[in-house]
């Protein structure tokens, strides 16, 4: 019997997907100037995740906070992180910014749900890029 669990394999697969994105971008030719910077949509998603992550931390630290408030803040943070994972990073700047940000999240051990992996892998499917709804942070349909 193998000494590696499915969860450990899933986590290492996520790191491999992110690392391969970085490696692929390193081998690509020099992108056009406008493609080097992250898009406004991705910057907004990352900013939203940072805000919901901070709000979740505050909800946990509040002494008078209820479990319902903690759960609500946790779900909001999770939705924001899934939106970053699912964002189809087509431009060079988006790929680099998304990879850097998600590697930081993974470094804290917080990129550990199957939904994260599904969203991340779904975001690499070029055929689905047109199905992305940036204002909702989701896909039009499940693949």
Automatic annotation (TrEMBL):
**Keywords associated with the record:** Signal
Query: From which domain of life does this come?
Result: Bacteria
Q: Keyword Signal on this protein?
A: yes
Matches recorded under InterPro entries: TAT_signal
Write the signal peptide boundaries: 1-28
Provide the protein name. Answer: Twin-arginine translocation pathway signal
What is the scientific name of the source organism? Mesorhizobium delmotii
């Amino acid at each position: 019997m193998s000494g590696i669990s499915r969860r450990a394999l899933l986590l290492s697969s996520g790191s491999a997907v992110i690392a391969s994105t970085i490696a692929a971008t390193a081998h690509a030719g020099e992108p056009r100037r406008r493609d080097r910077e992250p898009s406004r949509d991705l910057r907004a998603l990352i900013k939203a995740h940072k805000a919901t992550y901070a709000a979740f931390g505050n909800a946990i630290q509040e002494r008078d906070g209820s479990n319902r408030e903690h759960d609500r803040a946790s779900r909001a943070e999770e939705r924001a992180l899934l939106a970053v994972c699912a964002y189809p990073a087509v431009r060079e700047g988006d790929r680099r910014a998304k990879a850097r940000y998600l590697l930081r999240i993974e470094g804290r051990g917080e990129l550990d749900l199957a939904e994260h992996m599904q969203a991340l892998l779904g975001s690499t499917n070029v055929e689905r890029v047109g199905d992305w709804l940036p204002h909702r942070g989701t896909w039009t349909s499940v693949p």
